[in-house]
Amino acid sequence: MKNIVTQAARILVGFLFIISGLIKLNDPLGFSYKLEEYFNANVLNMEFLIPYALIIACFVVVFEVVLGVMLLIGFKTKFTVWSLLVMIVFFTFLTFYSWYFDKVKDCGCFGDALKLSPFESFIKDLILLGLILVLFFNQKFIKPLYGKTALNLTVFASYSLCLFMAFYVLQHLPIKDFRAYKIGSNIRKGMEIPKGATKSEYEMVFIYKVNGVETEIPYADVMANKVPEGAEFIDRKDKVIVEGYIPPIHDFTIEKDGSNYIDSVLDEPKVIFLISYDLSKSKAKGMKKLEAFNKKATEKGYQVIGLTASDLSISEAFKNEFGLTFDYYFCDPTTLKTIVRANPGIVVLEKGTIVQKVHFNDIDKVVLK
To answer: Which of 27, 208, 209, 266 sits in a 20 to 30 Å window from 350, CA-based?
Structure first.
């Protein structure tokens, strides 16, 4: 019976690690953004790791896939099971921390392919922890599927293929796009809220410093003069009581000089967005290609718009440095990183529908009609 339970756990854990790892390996840049969120001062307060988020992301996802393969084929059982245990204990801590302290809304366990709430992620990790503990205490039942040479070749091939995939998607774009801005999506429709959809409900709360500790006090208590004596007012915020329907696209703007041009731009038959969520982090190699492409697209009748979250002084400096003649408009940085996993990236629209999307390395592949 123990052997049957162990083999079942082996198969479940192995395939779950491979699937979860491959989904994130399809988009390691997106996973690195999630790690940056965890490293933020408001979560784990490990901001010194933010510059290394992409390297860490690539290592984690490659190791996750290969660990799944190693478990299934029975390669170095002790090392594999210990590695699985350490990894799942760490992930369980992260998901518990995110859920209990309401720090991160989505753990990123399955990238954008499957969104899990922090609580769902924590329960998933608890189940995985239980399965891995079964493997840990029954290691003697995990036998190699074939000889040592074949095992070594399988692991080497897994590492090699994973590294190649990571390199490929970082130099181009994710092979499969699971986001709301994938090719074929209409931005305007993605922003619509269906009739009868649940609306969010909020409670006004006030933040006071009480005995040196920031404390949330409900609006009703403040109105009833129940604020502790000597408390110092810090801030006011709206706390979500009931989470309503949030459309797939909800933070997209095209702002300039205090105006939002989203309606007029999305009505245009031929539009190109040249996106750099942070110009100071954009690749010079890509920026040098933009003006020649802009001229070619303009001649074909396209309206070319730069989108960035950088402030006006930075965008003007970059326009001068690279000789750019198109204007930059403002959009939220998280939204821009979601639209295209490149800095800069190119997005082609027809009346608000995304028809092409490429990394700056593939700018010559854009089809201009």
So the answer is: 27
CA–CA distance, 306 with 9 (Å, rounded to integer):
50
Rounded Cα distance between 125 and 95, Å, is: 8
- DSSP result, 114-178: B---HHHHHHHHHHHHHHHHHHHHTGGG---SS-HHHHHHHHHHHHHHHHHHHHHHHHS--SS--
Check pLDDT > 70 for residue 313. Answer: yes
Q: Is the pLDDT of residue 101 over 70?
A: yes
Residue 187 in any domain: the answer is no
The pLDDT value recorded for residue 159 is 96
Q: What is the mean pLDDT of residues 77-98?
A: 92
Question: In terms of residue numbers, what domain contains 225?
Answer: 201-242
Taking a C-beta distance cutoff of 8 angstroms, is the pair 202, 218 a contact?
Answer: no
Residue 196 lies in a domain: no
Tens of pLDDT along 45-76? 888 999 999 999 999 999 999 999 999 999 99
Helix/strand/coil for 94? helix
Q: Assign 41 a pLDDT band (cuts: 50, 70, 90).
A: low
The amino acid present at 122, given as its one-letter code, is: F
Q: Is the peptide bond before 344 cis (omega within 30 degrees of 0)?
A: yes
Classify residue 310 by burial, with Cβ atoms within 10 Å: 0-12, 13-18, 19+. buried
Query: What's the domain count of the chain?
Result: 3
Element at 314 (helix H, strand E): helix 312-322
The verdict on 15 and 110 lying in the same domain is yes
In eight-state DSSP terms, residue 49 is: G
Rounded Cα gap, residues 344 and 281, in angstroms = 9
What pLDDT does residue 229 have? 85
The H or E element spanning position 190 is helix 187-190
pLDDT exceeds cutoff 90 at 315? yes
